[in-house]
Amino acid sequence: MASTSDSTPVNAAVNQLLRDPEGNLEAISETADLFKALATPSRLKMLLVLAHGEATVTHIVESTELSQPLVSQHLKFLRGLHLVGVNRIGREAYYSLKDDHVAHIILDALAHTVEGHEH
Q1: Would you state the pLDDT for residue 16?
Q2: Contact at 8 Å (CB) between 15 and 4?
Q3: pTM for this prediction
Q4: Alpha-carbon distance 70 to 79, whole Å?
Q5: Residues 95, 86: contact at Cβ < 8 Å?
Q6: Three-class SS string for 35-92?
Q7: I need a labelling partner for 90 at 20 to 30 A (CA). Which of 31, 42, 111, 119 fits?
Q8: One GO molecular-function annotation for this sequence (predicted)?
Q9: Which stretches of the chain score pLDDT less than 70?
């Protein structure tokens, strides 16, 4: 498997993108959208809650101390980017991360930030 300069393994699709960025502008644009989604403290707090597992809007509101309308607005945005999914059981909606990659990105960034402050 190919690696970047710091030995991070990459799959074949990412390796192709590294070789031909101009031919993969859609993937690059979608990746930029991911970073835009992560660029607000409110959404980061919400995604950290969801990194622990499914949560209702009420649970997210209580955990983040954000308003219910703001949480709902952010969830709609995150669902539109396919970062968050919803599972409806009766009248209750349970939100979760669509995959673990988002949690890894956030946790790696937090580790980088915390470690940077310790030095």
Answers
A1: 77
A2: no
A3: 0.77
A4: 14
A5: yes
A6: HHHCCCHHHHHHHHHHHCCCECHHHHHHHHCCCHHHHHHHHHHHHHCCCEEEEEECCE
A7: 42
A8: DNA-binding transcription factor activity
A9: 1-10, 119
CATH architecture of residue range(s) 40-116: Orthogonal Bundle (1.10)
Helix or strand or coil: residue 97? Answer: strand
Helices (H) and strands (E) in the chain, counts: 6, 2
Which residue, among 21, 20, 44, has the nearest Cα to 31 in the 3D structure? 21
Tokens of 31: 């990746």
One-letter amino acid for residue 81 of the chain? L
pLDDT at site 119:
60
* Two tokens, residue 73: 């607005």
